[in-house]
Amino acid sequence: MLSHFYLHIKRYPVPDYRVDGLILPVWLIGPVVPWTTVARLARVLVQVKVTLTITLRNLTGDMAKRTTASKKVSSAESGSWPTIGVSVVIFALRPRGDSQELAVLLVRRESPPFAGLWALPGGWVHTGEGLEESARRHLLTKTGLRAAYLEQLYTFGRPDRDPREHRIAVAYYALVPGEPVDPSAGQREANWFSVDRLPKKLAFDNHEILRYALWRLRNKVSYADVAFQLLPTSFTLSELREVYEVILDRKLDPTNFRRKVEASGTIVPTSSRVEGGAHRPPRLYRAQRRNLPEPAPLN
């Protein structure tokens, strides 16, 4: 009969015992065991309970870690690899007061991750599609623009750049000549931003991609015909110099610039001049498109 009776420790005043809800069977301690022995036995059982709880928690944590590691190994063994996408940096010149500024085109993301933030145009590379082909497709469908100049920039593959998965981005940069085209023709909300006044927060690692693209453009403009991609077919030396100044973000000496550009063989004069004006109209030039070895800086 005693095995069916229980003594609830919480209901009795045991001075040195403080555990709620611990129940000891009477047949374990006997009907005549002193209360001090009961309290001591209770403390032992509590210690056993705590030890078991901690041990189980540690085992659970170890099992979770092993499961995660096992998933990673099995994922690699099953042939699961990072996905590939493209990102495009689109540069253009746009008016700013009496001068021009270098601008970049961004699109607003509609869905997570980074919903509502501005980002570079881009997306997945389809199976059987070339990288540049994919970059041009995303550029056209999302912004309505066709790039006159498109060059592979760099590959960005930090594992945490996309919170959804490990996704490698092959970045390109493009130049749009003349007045920037209205980007509302694309599928996404798009807008031009000055490279000096970008949004503080962009999606993914787009700030890093933009910094690298601007660094590449400023380095390459000194020795290649990149600047001509931002000009109409015919242009004046002043217009060409302004493009260099906007890209390099510094003023150039007009006389020194003219001498070096004419000596480089990258431009040829035409028989036309700018119409109108009170003074002698400036001559128009066209580009002699070719890539040259890197010369001295234009300053």
Helix and strand topology:
Blueprint lengths: L5 E3 L14 E3 H4 L5 H43 L5 E14 L2 E10 L9 E2 L2 E3 L6 H13 L5 E8 L10 E10 L13 E5 L11 H15 L16 H12 L5 H11 L2 E7 L9 E5 L12
Parallel strand pairs: 3-8
Antiparallel strand pairs: 1-2, 3-4, 3-6, 4-5, 4-9, 7-8, 10-11
Structure description:
The termini are far apart. The chain is an alpha+beta fold and 299 residues long. The protein is 33% helix and 23% strand. The strands form three sheets. Strands 3, 4, 5, 6, 7, 8 and 9 form a seven-stranded mixed beta sheet that branches. A two-stranded antiparallel sheet has the order 1-2. It has three domains: 2-77; 82-220, Nucleoside Triphosphate Pyrophosphohydrolase (Alpha-Beta Complex), CATH 3.90.79.10; 221-299, Winged helix-like DNA-binding domain superfamily/Winged helix DNA-binding domain (Arc Repressor Mutant, subunit A).
Content of β-strand: 15-25%
Which bin fits the share of residues in helices?
25-40%
CATH level 1 name of the largest domain: Alpha Beta
CATH superfamily of the largest domain: Nucleoside Triphosphate Pyrophosphohydrolase
Domains counted in the coordinates: how many? 3
In CATH, the architecture of the largest domain is Alpha-Beta Complex
Structural class: alpha+beta
Low-pLDDT residue spans: 1-22, 26-32, 68-78, 292-298
Give me the CATH fold name of the largest domain.
Nucleoside Triphosphate Pyrophosphohydrolase
What summary fits the major beta sheet?
7 strands, mixed
Q: Number of helical runs?
A: 6
* Total beta-strand segments: 11
